[in-house]
User: What shape does this take?
Amino acid sequence: MTESSTIDRTHNDVRTATMTGGDALAEMLIRNGVDTLFGLPGVQLDGFFNALWSRQEQLRVVHTRHEQATAYMADGYARVSGKEGVCVVVPGPGLLNAAAALSTAYACNSPVLCITGQIKSDLIDHGRGMLHEIHDQVGMIRHITKSAERAVTPSEVPGLVDRAFAQLRSGRMRPVEIEVPLDILFAEESVTLSAGTPARTYVSPDSARMDEAAAILAAAKTPLIYAGGGVLRGEAWSELQQLAELLQAPIVMSANGKGAISDRHYLAQNQVGELDLRPHADVALVVGTRFLDNFSQPRPMNPDTKLIRIDIDPEEMTRDLNPDLQLVGDAKAGLAGLIERLANTAGSRPSRKDELQAVKDAANARIFGMVPQGQYGQAMRDAVPDDGIFVGEMTQLGYWSNFGMPIYEPNTYITPGYQGTLGFGFCTALGVKVAKPDTTVISINGDGGFGFALNELATMAQHNIAAITLVFNDSAYGNVKRIQEEDLGGRQIASSLRNPDYMALAGAFGVTGRRAESPAALGTAITESIKANEPTLIEVPVGPMPNPWRALGLR
Ligand SMILES: Cc1ncc(C[n+]2csc(CCOP(=O)(O)OP(=O)(O)O)c2C)c(N)n1
Ligand SMILES: [Mg+2]
Assistant: This one.
């Protein structure tokens, strides 16, 4: 069974004309549905930016102050828009600057297209030392992309772009790199533009295995569902909820899977509630997740729990454990297939609402009882509307939010995943806000992580990107400092930070600055910022915070 995606693509005629490589690249992006690019120009890209100049009505260019931001913004854009995010960087140092962000998109299965320039085509890999030359750029970037490829004539560009989009629209979504040398971007020849790449289709798991899985689930008394980012990337949230309701199975979401079911639903459980549920599960249905804990460790499952996995990536199935049943396919098709098979048999289960609501309430009492994280978390959640989007970071409130923040809609909680990249939060939130200008976007940063990208306050002001940027300022790489304090005998080194005056900093960039000295003040500051809807920085001075995983028994 395959099913068309909801993304509407305009149909284009195949057309042959004489044009430059730059024109061909720009035209093919348009033909693949791209309308926004995040980029930073340079001499190897002149032919491309020249082509973009004449297409500003169709392709908006958002330029940044560092290449990391182009790729983070493309990632943020991709995670919330249902479209691919596209960034454009010069070769060598430009691509290397973008690499931390690409590795993050790789970790989080985000469809990012990175377009890179190249030195002159006849000098590639000669080692002469051309401006921005690095040896085997394609080979280098392949390690953190799904594919990487170069065109060496203008007429090769349409195929290059279509193959990239075919990768971005099939299987496990991960970033893709393409590159075109500077002379080819200016060279002219006859080019045949294709109609673009078809929309994504969903691959269904093997039918006989789905029969087996349905039989196991029908017989299960206390089934438990684990949902990860694959549910969101595969737009499978309705199917997930329907199946869970049929089975009366609680759903534990990974950080990247948050929003797969609304936390208002009694079946939605966080990782603290999971501690109560896991030992009693007779069957675990694991959908679109690596199925690891916060520290990328395998979960200590009860050996009697039968394991069924749905995953688009066959390699993921058996990396750490051998499931009883492997369903290789898209979450949407897999879950729909199970619903079809279970609709008659499992329809009459009694509601587990009282029992599961109690598990949830007990977990939340502990989570929100954490001082001060629970109070700040509550203040943020109360101030932000249900459809508001939180972008996390590697900071104390980010860690807490990964398991604690209630999330009510799909794709409204965005994290750097296992890459844990400082610098991710602020930049990614800017891309999210470009994709969703009418939605509240909250970026949760520490002073350390924000420092990786504070130059992008200029981008925020210049392009009027009204994301609300929080900086929890403890004058420290707080997580590092706490480890040195608690586990390394207080041997503090390289973990204290002397910070700028954040209000003066915001003012210098032309961004509205607010300071919030308590959870209540933070709530007020967020509410005011939502009303003002302008580029905003909110500094939240804080002290050291307790280790959230230890406090909640998650480690
Ligand atoms: C790119 C990158 N470099 C280094 C680290 C290691 N690291 C993890 S947490 C952390 C401290 C973060 O400090 P801050 O952003 O202020 O958050 P806090 O813990 O103080 O809340 C560091 C340096 C990282 N995660 N990513
Ligand atoms: Mg800090």
About this structure: The CA atoms of residues 27 and 193 lie 8 Å apart. The mean pLDDT is 95. The radius of gyration is 24 Å.
